[in-house]
Amino acid sequence: MLSNFDLFVEFYQKVKDSEDIAEVLKEYGGSSIYVPSYKSTYRNADILDEYEQSIKDGKSSTAAIREIAAKHNLSYNSVSAIIRELKEPALF
Question: Keywords on this record (predicted)?
Fold first, then answer.
């Protein structure tokens, strides 16, 4: 499943690679384009990397999530949801 970030990358490449603005207008004219937040897009990837490194370093899942939550000023449940979302691909 494509994420909003993936869709934006596709749009950005199309705009960047187009020789004529008419190509972009024909394909995307009238569309609402969502630009994902830089913070959440890259922060979430960093959270997963930090979690996986903590587990490799021998920390329990609970301890790793608590540390990451404190570092990023998020709740335990928010960090758990981010990790779960990035580790488990969506079905639809």
Answer: DNA-binding
Instruction: Say which DSSP state 32 is in.
Output: P
Q: How many other β-carbons are positioned within 10 Å of the β-carbon of residue 56?
A: 9
- Give pTM, 2 decimals: 0.64
Sorted by sequence, the CB contacts under 8 Å of residue 25 that are 6+ apart come out as none
Closest CA to 55 of 45, 44, 74, 68: 68
Rounded Cα distance between 77 and 37, Å, is 20
Q: Report which DSSP code applies to 74.
A: -
